[in-house]
Amino acid sequence: MYLVSDASLMLIDEPLNGLDPTSIQLFERVFDYLRHQGKSLLVSSHQMDSVGRICDVVYFLRDQQIHPLVNAGQDMMAEYTGMFLQQPAMQQEATNAHAN
Hints:
The chain is an alpha+beta fold. It is 48% helix and 22% strand. The strands form two sheets. Strands 1-2 form a two-stranded parallel ribbon. The mean pLDDT is 87.
């Protein structure tokens, strides 16, 4: 519908979920084409590899705060892991001390 409407701003929620790798690549090409047409896309996605390929800026939502990250080609899954899955050093030390 967005392609037909010629909207300048597109809000897209999880467009890649459940797609096979070929379809994901096709969607990434469409997103790239739209970006080069001057369109703005706000894409909600958990597909970190695709996010890293198609987004200029990635916004992570953590603890009710928005954390922007300019995409300079870094590994978005590593960025996600660092923000959400790794415990801060002090918390890790407390966990280790409690375990001993």
